[in-house]
Amino acid sequence: MRNVLTELKGLLASPALQVGEVISVTGTDVKVQLPGSGVVSARGSAALGTMVYVRDGVIEGPAPDLPTYTIEV
Fold first, then answer.
1. How far from the centroid of its chain's Cα atoms is residue 67's Cα?
2. Which residues of the chain fall below pLDDT 70?
3. Is residue 69 part of a domain?
């Protein structure tokens, strides 16, 4: 028997995984600078100046400090 709700959830896009640099930390509220000048607020813990992965407003963990390039299409 097929589950229509599960199939529908599979069609919907999950929140994007983004990477950025921590520019502000206040308790568990962290501001992350994304490539291309965007800033997002996320929950979690991270050290100032480190690179982190962010998805749906939550820090998922540390990211490698690699060079980033912005390509406009």
1. 17
2. none
3. no
